[in-house]
Each structure stands twice: as structure tokens, then as C-alpha cells.
Design brief:
heterodimer, A: seven-stranded mixed β-barrel, B: alpha+beta, Gyrase A, domain 2, Cyclophilin, 2 domains, seven-stranded mixed barrel, four-stranded antiparallel beta sheet
Chain lengths: 337, 243
């Protein structure tokens, strides 16, 4: 049975997924959830596959009303979550009864929160992704009164033993900090910066208010390119750190234009891109050098954590009789299908 | 990790670009050969459909290969790229017959606010700039930002065209621009620092259709001048390959 919900207060929210991975080959940025770990965790906790459409809420308060019974999960930055006026936990499945309002208030320490709904949403896609692309004008606009159809409705899960938490999922939540440490590997053009490249690791950087999903601008000591030759346009990875001006570092995030002509000083690791997605203007950042091998190991450890969560949730939901649908059995890309 | 160089036919360097991408650079020194190499490689990777490889972004002499570091790794993708190069050596690059696009442009005035500036900087009349811009058959070298822009080697001008000191916050879709030794059409409205010399009334990008833009790298494109009064008649028509 399908369900639905109505947006009451959109704040700054979008429906997104893990991104348009086919996009860059066509000149479109990958986009998608900026904090991929939190987005995947939300979908897993809601009994969805990792890449299904979910809500990304940036900074501002948000409210929606369930038209039918729903099962949701809220992850990302610390915040106050209420359902029908009751305080509810983040990073856990939460039942919402028809007519109840879900309110997200006071997003703090970090910047972005994710709400996944069991059964996800039916939304338009472009190159197999619903992620908004502001440049080509693609994406569902969420306004007061927008109704989102979900593919499932879920009867409330009740706790038979009063006073005990409903779920013990054993997930290690990410740390949120106003002074995050960001791991980077040497960029392909690090040599062009000569001795000044090391400034990146000896100074602190402050996140500028002009930061967004395209890139974060950071104030601080700036490495300088030692060459003046023109660079041919080429593909730049998400996470690329460039020095385009004498004022700020630019760290490209998932909305980045896929080609550019600036040398790449360093590249933020996949795991640290999630941390950067939560950095607010005014937060201070320290960079730490790592290797591709270590960065890959760290990323895989986080993925394994999510695999364990998925396995636990499948057991719990199986016992509760939720999510036995076809979509449920889709293999994740990591399971070697 | 040091760059790997393989010998003939195409010299190649592979650079780490974080934990989820590699930059592969063709270094034969012949621009045409390097371009063919990176585009053949990107095409091969796209059709091979390797687990964990998201795709490839080829430009002039380099290709960015993006992957999921959970499913695969920089090491594996690097090995795969080297294998792909050997495969290309054996089979040769399959060259697709280029399609031809013809693009009507209203030059100058509010359609091309930088036409006179470019003319002055090149020591040419505006009419000469238009003549040089329309007399060349361009090869679309790659799809760039924003939104699959067709990046082309520019018209036969005496000098490179400097970028604007203050980039515009908004350049309309259809803007026809030059910068350095390059030429481009803007598929979508976006900020831009290139010199806008004209505008085409045709729609280049349609977010409701796939493919989003009608051309691929290797296709050919020509511009022709139209009077301002024809702009409205053609507005909203799609850019399509000549039959």
C-alpha cells in the first residue's frame, strides 16, 4: 500500500539520493547527499536500499505531516526531533502515525540532516538519479503544501515492554565537531606548489559563509602555485582543493563543475568529505595528510559499519514483518552481484 | 605514488587523485593524438562496464576516472586502465563518423555584449571577428562545465582572448563565447568569465530528454550569422544534427 506526507515547513530541504554517478561523463556534477554516510544510514535504518530518494535538510527548521502511517529515520547533524509532539531519537527507526507532524528543529554543530521514509518516494529522475541539479534546473522543489508519495505505509511499531528502548542497533554515530580534522591525500599537481604546499598542514582554516554544495571556501594561509603556465581544462575530482584566488582555498564538493583549469593541490578523502558536508560557516578546519591506501581503508571501515547495521536492521525488521517486499532483497553494489 | 609511463603508441601517466579517482594523462606531445587517446580510453571504460567504476571524464589530454573505493580501489583501476590501453593498441580506436551541427547566431548588441571588446583587443573589425568565427568547422573536444558545454578549439584569431576581469554572475543559455584559444556555447544559464560575442536562439540542453545535449566529443559544429529579427522565430527549437 502506498503512503504519503505533506511538507508543512520546507526550510531548506531537497529530495535527493547518493548522486548522479553517470553525470560527470556528460558534463553534469554528481551532486546527491553531501554527507553520504548519514544519508546511507538513514535509508538503512528506514529499511530502504542505500541509494533511495530521501530528504536532505540544510540548517533550517523543517516540518512535515504524515498522511498515512510511516516509518522514518533521521540522521546527520544533532537536532531536536519530535513526532506528534513527542521527543524522538535520531539514528533509529521511528514510527509516525497518520496525521502526526514530524518536526526537525535546532540543527547544530553540523549543518545537514537526513530523513528517510520506509518505501522512499516516487520522484522524477535524470540519468537514474533524483538529485537536484541547480545548473540544468532539474529537481523537485519542496514548498509548503508539497505532497510526497511513498511506496509503502508502515503500521506503528509498538514497544511491548515499557521503558526499554525499542532498538539496540549498536551503530557508532559519527562525531560532530566545530573543529573537524579533515584527511587529504596529495593532489596530482602538488609539486606545482613547491614548499608552500605544506602550509596546508600547518595552519587553520575558517569556513566562509560563501560555501555551498558546489564547494567550501576556506580562509587561512594559502599555498601558492610556483608556475604561471596555463592549464588545459580537465576533469577534477570531488574533494579537489584548489587555490583560485589570493583570498581563499576552494574545496570542491559534490556540486562541482566537472572540468576546471586550476591545479589540484590536495584531495579530501571520501570519509572526510562527509565531515566537511557538516562544517558550518565559522567552523575551523585542520588538514591532515594521509595516503590513498589509508583513506581507502578508512572508507571501507565506515562501509562495513553500515553493512553491519543493514544486517541487524534486516533481522529486526524481518521479525517485525516490515519490509519483506521485493525491493528489500535487492543486493547492495558491495555484495558482488 | 610516482606516475607510470608506458611506451608506444601513446605515452601515458596515471596520477592519484584522491581515494575515488585517477587522472590519466596522455603525454605523446601531439595534441590530436593525445585527445584521441583519452577519448578512446574513456569510451572503452564506459562500454566495459567495470564493477565500481562510475565513469570517465575525458577533456583534451587527460581523463578523470571515477570509482567507488568500497567496490574497487585506485590500485585495481590503475591496473585496469593499463589493460585497457593494451586493448586499444590491438584493436585501434573505433572512430565514429562525426555528425555535423549548424548553429545560428545573432552577433553583437545585447546578444553579444563583448563583441566590440574582442574586436578591439584583436585589432579587427567586429565583422572580421564574425567572419573568422563563422568560417571554421569546429571539432567538439569535450563536454565541460556547466552542463555539458561543447568545448572547441577557438576561431583563427591573432591573439588569445583574455577572460573578463569580473566574471558575470549570469550568462544566458545559448550564449556563444570565446576565451583563450577556445570557443563554447552555454547550454544553461550560469555564471561565466568568457567573452560573449553572440547568442543562439536554439535550445541546446533539455533536462527532460536524454541525452541532455545532442552532441558528443568528436562531432563537428559550424556557426552562421542570422539577423536579430530571426531570433524569435527560431527560439525554442532544439539544436539537432544535420540530417
Amino acid at each position: 500500500m502506498t503512503g504519503s506526507l505533506t511538507i508543512l515547513q520546507p526550510g531548506h530541504s531537497v529530495v535527493t539520493d547518493l548522486g548522479r554517478t553517470k553525470g560527470p561523463a556528460f558534463g553534469l556534477p554528481v551532486n546527491g547527499a553531501l554527507d553520504q554516510f548519514s544519508a546511507k544510514a538513514a535509508n538503512i535504518l528506514a529499511g530502504n536500499t542505500d541509494n533511495e530518494p530521501l530528504l536532505e535538510i540544510t540548517a533550517l527548521d523543517f516540518r512535515m505531516r504524515a498522511t498515512t502511517d510511516l516509518l522514518i529515520a533521521v540522521t546527520g547533524a544533532p537536532l531536536d526531533l519530535t513526532v506528534g509532539g513527542r521527543d524522538c531519537p535520531q539514528w533509529e527507526p521511528v514510527s509516525v502515525r497518520a496525521g502526526e507532524t514530524v518536526a526537525v528543529r535546532g540543527i547544530r554543530t553540523g549543518l545537514r540532516a537526513y530523513i528517510a521514509v520506509h518505501g522512499s518516494f516516487t520522484v522524477p529522475t535524470l540519468l537514474d538519479s533524483c538529485a537536484p541539479d541547480t545548473v540544468v534546473g532539474f529537481g523537485l522543489k519542496l514548498l509548503e503544501g508539497t505532497e510526497l508519495a511513498t511506496q509503502k505505509t508502515t503500521a506503528p511499531i509498538t514497544q511491548p515492554h515499557y521503558g526499554l528502548p525499542l532498538f539496540r542497533l549498536g551503530l557508532t554515530k559519527p562525531d560532530f565537531s566545530t573543529h573537524p580534522v579533515i584527511d587529504v591525500t596529495d593532489g596530482p599537481d602538488v609539486a606545482e606548489f613547491g614548499n608552500t604546499a605544506d602550509l596546508l598542514f600547518t595552519s587553520q582554516y575558517t569556513v566562509s559563509p560563501r560555501s555551498n554544495h558546489i564547494g567550501l571556501r576556506l580562509g587561512g594561509a594559502l599555498p601558492e602555485r610556483q608556475l604561471t603556465s596555463e592549464v588545459l581544462s580537465r576533469g577534477v575530482p570531488v574533494g579537489a582543493i584548489e587555490v583560485p584566488s589570493r583570498e581563499e582555498l576552494l574545496v570542491l564538493h559534490r556540486g562541482r563543475g566537472v572540468t576546471a583549469g586550476y591545479p589540484v593541490l590536495a584531495v579530501v578523502t571520501s570519509r572526510s568529505l562527509d565531515v566537511l558536508a557538516q562544517a558550518r560557516p565559522g567552523h575551523t578546519i585542520t588538514f591532515r595528510k594521509t595516503t590513498v591506501a589509508d583513506a581507502t581503508a578508512t572508507h571501507r571501515a565506515a562501509c562495513l559499519e553500515l553493512d553491519r547495521l543493514r544486517s541487524t536492521i534486516q533481522t529486526v525488521f524481518g521479525l517485525l514483518g516490515i519490509g519483506a517486499g521485493e525491493r528489500w532483497h535487492e543486493l547492495s553494489p558491495a555484495s558482488g552481484s | 605514488m610516482p606516475a607510470t609511463t608506458i611506451a608506444a603508441p601513446a605515452a601515458l601517466e596515471i596520477h592519484e587523485s584522491g581515494d575515488a579517482a585517477l587522472r590519466v594523462v596522455a603525454t605523446s606531445g601531439n595534441a590530436e593524438a593525445d585527445w584521441a587517446t583519452v577519448h578512446s580510453l574513456a569510451g572503452w571504460l564506459a562500454t566495459a562496464g567495470v564493477d565500481g567504476v562510475h565513469g570517465a571524464v575525458p577533456t583534451y589530454d587527460s581523463v578523470l576516472v571515477e570509482f567507488d573505493p568500497y567496490v574497487t580501489s585506485a590500485r585495481q583501476v590503475r591496473a585496469f586502465v593499463l589493460l585497457a590501453m593494451r586493448q586499444l593498441d590491438f584493436t585501434g580506436a573505433t572512430v565514429r563518423e562525426p555528425r555535423r551541427f549548424e548553429v545560428p547566431v545573432v552577433y553583437g548588441g545585447s546578444y553579444g555584449p563583448d563583441l566590440d571588446r574582442v574586436a578591439a583587443q584583436q585589432g579587427l573589425d567586429a565583422a572580421d571577428v564574425i567572419a573568422r568565427h563563422t568560417e571554421k568547422t569546429y571539432v567538439i573536444r569535450c563536454l565541460g562545465a556547466p552542463a555539458g558545454s561543447p568545448m572547441m578549439d577557438g576561431p583563427d584569431f591573432p591573439f588569445p582572448v583574455p577572460r573578463l576581469k569580473d566574471p558575470r554572475l549570469s550568462v544566458p543559455a545559448g550564449a556563444v563565447s570565446v576565451a583563450g584559444r577556445q570557443a563554447v556555447i552555454a547550454p544553461a544559464t550560469a555564471p561565466g568569465g568568457w567573452c560573449v560575442i553572440g547568442q543562439t536562439p536554439l535550445t541546446v540542453l533539455d533536462a527532460t530528454r536524454e541525452p541532455l545535449v545532442p552532441y558528443v566529443p568528436g562531432d563537428e559544429l559550424r556557426f552562421y550569422a542570422i539577423p536579430e529579427k530571426d531570433f524569435e522565430d527560431l527560439a525554442g527549437k532544439f539544436l539537432e544534427a544535420r540530417p
